[in-house]
Amino acid sequence: MAQSLKYSTDEKLRAAILAQFAADERVAHENLRVGVSKGIVHLAGAVSSIEIRTAAADLASKPPNVRGVVNRIEAPGAPSPGRTIHLNLSNEKENIDQ
Question: Domains in the chain: how many in total?
Fold first, then answer.
């Protein structure tokens, strides 16, 4: 049962992020890939500016229950899309305290 709930939550997060992308002019027409695993969002693709890359990461971090964002979107002037993970530790602390 816990396994199906996890996937359901990940799928809901992915759907929420895709809806935010579709509603935002900056990223709506970009060819970005979004995956979610255990609350960690993985972004990939290529965009024309670092501003679009940053906007995508900001949008992806907004839904509740997002634990972190791995931004592998390629953009001119952006850092190498390595394996840097930006965790939202404030949510983790809230979940632990409850």
Answer: 1
Q: What torsion do the CA atoms of 70, 76, 80, 81 make, to the nearest 10 degrees?
A: 30
β-strands 40-46, 68-74 pairing? parallel
Note down the domain range covering 93.
2-97
Q: Angle CA(24)–CA(13)–CA(93) in degrees, nearest 5?
A: 110
* pLDDT tens-digit readout, 8-29: 799 999 999 999 999 999 999 9
* 8-state DSSP, 47: -
Contact call for residues 32 and 17 (beta carbons, < 8 A):
no
**Sign of the alpha-carbon torsion through 24, 27, 31, 36:** negative
| Alpha carbon distance 57, 51 (integer Å) | 10
